[in-house]
Structure formats: C-alpha cells, structure tokens
Design goal:
This protein is 36% helix and 18% strand. It is an alpha+beta fold. The protein has a four-stranded antiparallel β-sheet. Helix 2 packs antiparallel against helix 3. The longest helix has 18 residues.
Length: 116
C-alpha cells in the first residue's frame, strides 16, 4: 500500500508501507503485527524521540559504496535503477519532515495515498 505523510509546514512524503514500517519502528512506534496501520500519527510530543531514533538507525546502517564512480569507462557498472535503496536514503525525506515538524511543533500524520 502506498501511504502519504502530512505535516503543515512541509511537502508530503510518499512511501510504500513495507518501506515505512522499519523507519517508523526506528522512530519508536510500536505495532502489534508486521503491517503498518492505514492511518497514524507522530505527535509533537513524540517527535524529538522519533528523530533521535531514526538518526541512531541511520548511523548504524552506514552505506557502503560497492561501485564508486570512476573516470574510466567500464561496461561492468551497475545501472542505478538496479542498485538497492538503503535505509538511510529511504528514511531521509521522512526524517527531514519530522525535524521541521519538531521545529514548528506540529504533528505528522500518515494515511493511504489517494488514487489518481
């Protein structure tokens, strides 16, 4: 399921629920099963702990650059579309939203993304 995160002072963040689940767990949200609820909130009181939790998880999961860009033209390079997306890259847009919401003392909500 595609979900959207909302905050009054930042742009929306879209994410698949299976990718949002580990980020929200790092933020300190507890879920009864392995599925993300369709709707939820990170309250302004929970934001400092959520930001710190995601930052800790990002520090633990350091990215490794197995295919650094070099100047030589090598046909064995992996196309970026085939590279896995790390936890850090997935979490960063939501972390930026949470930081701004914390600064402005606003709640962050999530819900299913509307069908276009």
């Amino acid at each position: 399921m595609l979900i959207v995160f909302h905050s009054k002072s930042s742009a929306e963040v879209l994410m698949f629920s299976q990718h949002a689940l580990p980020i929200l767990r790092a933020a300190g949200k507890k879920f009864d099963n392995d599925e993300l609820p369709q709707r939820g909130v990170i309250t302004k009181a929970q934001l400092p702990e959520a930001v710190a939790g995601i930052e800790r998880a990002m520090a633990i999961t350091k990215e490794t650059d197995e295919n650094p860009d070099t100047d030589d033209d090598n046909d064995d390079k992996v196309h970026p579309i085939n590279e896995p997306v790390s936890f850090r890259r997935r979490a960063y847009p939501l972390l930026a939203m949470l930081r701004l919401a914390n600064e402005k003392q606003e709640d962050v909500l999530w819900e299913p993304a509307p069908v276009w």
